[in-house]
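Problem: given the chain below (413 residues), write out its structure.
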Amino acid sequence: MKSLKKLALGVAVAALTATSVMAENIKIAFIDPLSGPFAATGSEGLALYQYAAEELVNKQGGVLGGQNFEVIGFDNKISPKESLIQLQVAIDQGIRFVAQGNSSGVANALTDAINKHNKRNPDDRVLFLNYSAVDPALTNAKCNFWHFRFDANADIKMDAMTDVIAGDDSIKKVYIIGQDYSFGKAVAAAAVKFLGEKRPDIEIVGNELHPIGKVKDFTPYARKIMAAEADAVITGNWGADMVGLGKAVLGAGFDAPIFTYYAAGTGITKTFGADGVGKLKLVGEGQLNPPVSDRASAFVKGFKEKNPDKDIGQPRIANVMEMLARAINDAGSATDVVAIATALEGMEHDSIWGTKVKIRESDHQAIQNVHILAHTDQGVTHDMDNSGFGLVAEKTVTMASADIETTCKMKRP
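Solution.
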């Protein structure tokens, strides 16, 4: 009788242990700035990751029959060196998925470190989910099997942006300005390339870089732009640097288009307000206005209700969560990183934002619709920064640059 009781107890303990293992959360390390001048951008991204994980995955039954996603923030202070420290902390905690997007300089450091780690530790591999670092090199010369980019890269966005510029005969002079690191340089190079191909008559009257996160007063740069009599400005600035540059240029009386990558979101849209109407243009994926569906609109409203001081400035984060969940289910494992990466390769996903997203197998670059969005208070269902102003899609490039060439030579395990 005692033997039977012991056997029954053993079976019960084993069943409980198995259930606990099944219910263990799948952790995702969010490595981005949560302090310092770019904290608002990082905190907004973390909040959206956590909301998307809960609404789009956990509340839908999770993955693998009931496991939930858990997104954990790691503050890298926008430093590549600190990012590598935080990466190791995450790996030591058994985390196999890393999400990062703010700063291509950080992304370049992370992709190198993850690639090396995975070669040395085949039983403890990590996947890099790049949601916003758009240096083209990351899916070209520096591509690797473990890196997936869910945002359109700088070249894809500039291709769409310069289509609009090229079609405007009133633009004869363009001033290019950006942050002095890999992304800012990539934006400038792409602008020169595409403008030269599409409108060789346009004169580039300025092309300069400034220190990232260190300029307190952009007035001298605004004066240069005004003195050059530019008909348009192109900038890849983001965070505090976008606010500083935009305020200075608009404050100087600039009355022409400012084409940007990141001129919207918490702490940005309200600052520009009425001054940005008719001037600020943004290139990006994910359309909030006009809403593409009731489901998308409900997602935006739900996020704002839970995070009243934040905005959905990076809609593609929703795609990351849904596509990762699909890949884990397809792989049948949350730990077989090779199988999960293989499932992501070539995946076609119907996004909550009403468009198809495809991960290109050759370089792991997401191909999707890219929009030219206008800062306005007209036709805005979902505003940003609680300001009454938001982004409305003016032009859409369907599956932008689907045939763009890549120099990636993917080595697979």
